[in-house]
Design brief:
By secondary structure, the chain is α+β, with helices and mostly antiparallel strands. The protein contains three helices and six strands, in the order ααββαββββ. The protein has a six-stranded mixed sheet, covered by helices on one side. The model has no long low-confidence stretch (mean pLDDT 95).
Length: 141
């Protein structure tokens, strides 16, 4: 089978990030990001989460650990991130952009309920032979 084109590799990375946010290890999750990635999230008053900007894998990991400790996401929380309507634009041999729609479900093992919807404006870089997320700007609504 021929290797996947960059756009397909990026789509796979986006799917992997969603899966790992819900069921994977923090280490595997942050491996999907470049070393100096930036992660921007608006406030989510429904969940009691302030607006955040995280820079680098260590800060991104700390945010994941906090959300998991608060029972907001991660293994055992019965939540799911769903990423759809992904549009990828490869801008060079080593950079790309992607826009996607996200939905977030809670109570997935009992009565699944849509908890949030929004969009991702993502930037990717080819780092260590893999397409990794270098910047994510999350919007709600």
């Amino acid at each position: 089978m021929p290797p996947e084109c960059p756009a397909e590799q990026i789509r796979s990375t986006l799917a992997r990030i969603a899966h790992l946010a819900d069921t994977g290890s923090v280490e595997d999750y942050v491996e999907q990001f470049t070393r100096n990635a930036e992660w921007n999230m608006p406030a989510n008053p429904d969940r009691g989460i302030p607006a955040q900007v995280r820079r680098g894998r260590e800060e991104i990991a700390a945010g994941v650990v906090e959300r998991r400790a608060d029972g907001i996401q991660g293994p055992g929380t019965c939540t799911r991130h769903v990423t759809t309507a992904v549009a990828v634009d490869v801008t060079s041999e080593t950079t790309a952009r992607a826009d996607a729609v996200w939905t977030f479900y809670v109570d997935t093992t009992t009565t699944p309920k849509l908890s949030g919807v929004g969009s991702y404006a993502d930037e990717f870089e080819l780092e260590d032979g893999r397409w990794r997320l270098s910047r994510r700007v999350i919007s709600r609504g």
